[in-house]
Amino acid sequence: MSDAGSGRKKTPGNAPRIGVYPGTFDPITRGHLDIIRRAAAVVDKLVVGVAKNAGKDPLFTVDERVALVDAELADLRAEGQDVEVRPFGNLLIHFARDVGARVLVRGLRAVSDFEYEFQMATMNARLDSGIETVFLTASERQQFIASRLVKEIARLGGDVSGFVSPRVAEKLKERFAENGEG
User: Fold this and answer.
1) Mind listing the pLDDT tens digit for each residue in 43-92?
2) Which has the least CB within 10 A, 23, 93, 123, 137?
3) Residue 2 known to be catalytic
4) Is 134 part of a structural domain of the chain?
5) Each residue of 98-121: pLDDT tens digit?
6) What pTM did the predictor assign?
7) What residues make up the domain containing 42?
8) Residue 147 is among the residues annotated as catalytic for this protein
9) Active site residue 52
């Protein structure tokens, strides 16, 4: 079925097609925003899932990361995109079910990302075959951006303005100053 107003296909019963773009977003980068913008254009609603993921020893708390991501999505909302941010600490498939998603969006920066992402997609399909994984490749200008590298540059006092928004750059600067770094 096609939704005549948007040109997008709707799911059976005219329910909106909901996608989830999960990540740690520690911090959110221009690369993440590129994937979010493009994913929001192919689903009716996009839920950006911020993983608690304490195992990665995040620089920012989950609440801080949710707030940063939420602030970064203001422009998309102003353009009429249906995007929201939610934290999650459970299995991704369970989170996707909780929000009614039928699509998982994963970004690929380089070929080296593919093997891990392919394994995750295969496992998620085994856990719930009704939830599809869609891969979006990073735009050429965003391919090399990784949150871990952005944090390292910021920690050492480098300029991260090409990789993150001014808001995120300021938060990084503040955090490293609090920690006596940067």
Assistant:
1) 999 999 999 976 778 999 999 999 999 999 999 999 999 999 999 999 99
2) 123
3) no
4) yes
5) 999 999 999 987 777 788 899 999
6) 0.88
7) 13-143
8) yes
9) no
